Amino acid sequence: MLAPLDFSQASRRRILTLILASAGTGVFWGLGLPLPFLFGPMAACLVAALSHVPIKGFGQVSVAARTILGVAVGASITPALFHQLPEMALSVALVPVFIALIGLIGVPFFRHVWGFDVPTAFYAAMPGGLQDMVIFGAEAGGDPRALSLIHATRVLIIVTLAPAFLTLAYGAGLTNPIGAPVAELPPGEMALMVAAALIGWKGGERIGLFGASILGPMIVTAVLSLSGLIHTRPPAEAILAAQFFIGCGIGVHFLGVTWGELTRSHGVS
Q1: Measured in whole angstroms, how far is the alpha carbon of residue 25 from the centre of its chain?
Q2: Which of the residues 4, 28, 173, 230 has the least number of beta carbons within 10 Å of its own beta carbon?
């Protein structure tokens, strides 16, 4: 007879996370709420984390999920996009101004109002990837737990409010298909997208590229797209899987957070 499998504590916690996240997805799907594969897992893991349920993130699986988004963005960079650049020039020019304003307002706010040290205040104010800001901030001498909490909350608010704002303020629908099913895509192009994801991710890490898991695949895929080698986005199934694990990752970041930390970081009372 086969010996029973000996699951580690980490494995059991991940299985519990998977069950809760799947349940959250089912609830959001059943209620017809937007982006159920993102908001469902995120909400379920957030509630579980704040309730101190022993859940655990999926490590490199969640990082790999971000490569799918990088490929999706890169595949959207086509020759036709460059014809629209003159219309986008003003928006692009405002990005440095926007970042400068964030720094001028955010850094003093976190430094003098909430009493963070300079590295923590700076990296808490700056926009950027959650894990990247936490890692860079910690290396600069900042408080990684405070940075993780602040940026996880920022991501949570953005991905929750942005769809509602687009729907209510601009009347934009969120019903466009996210991609074609895997059965409808050319196998050769899918193989190129997988290669772009892996080469961009690991190659980007090797050269120290900022946000390598997203920017690396995006750059490689953009080159393939502009070269006419790919003409499609990743399959719908891959994008849904990416949403699922990214949603889990956002919620899990709140694990172990206390009300005292929420009060200090966000003014919750």
Answers
A1: 17
A2: 4
Integer Cα distance of 137 and 139 in angstroms: 5
The one-letter amino acid code at 53 reads V
d(CA 75, CA 217): 10
The CA distance from 147 to 114, in Å, is: 13
Distance CA 197, CA 212 (A): 10
Count CB neighbours of 2 within 10 A.
4
Q: Show the 3-state SS of the chain.
A: CCCCCCCCHHHHHHHHHHHHHHHHHHHHHHCCCCCHHHHHHHHHHHHHHHCCCCCCCCCHHHHHHHHHHHHHHHHCCCHHHHCCHHHHHHHHHHHHHHHHHHHHHHHHHHHHHCCCCHHHHHHHHCCCCHHHHHHHHHHCCCCHHHHHHHHHHHHHHHHHHHHHHHHHHHCCCCCCCCCCCHHHCCHHHHHHHHHHHHHHHHHHHHCCCCCHHHHHHHHHHHHHHHCCCCCCCCCHHHHHHHHHHHHHHHHHCCCCCCHHHHHHHHCCC
Contact 252, 147 (CB under 8 A): no
The pLDDT tens digits of the residues spanning 6-60 come to 468 888 999 999 999 999 999 999 988 777 898 899 889 988 988 889 999 898 8
Section 138-155 average pLDDT: 80
Cβ–Cβ contacts within 10 Å for residue 91, how many? 9
Longest dimension (CA), the chain: 69
Summarize pLDDT for 212-263 with one digit per residue, the tens: 888 899 999 999 999 989 988 899 999 999 989 988 988 887 787 766 666 6
Rounded to whole angstroms, the Cα distance separating 96 from 244 reads 32
Residue closest to 241 by CA, chosen among 75, 65, 35: 65
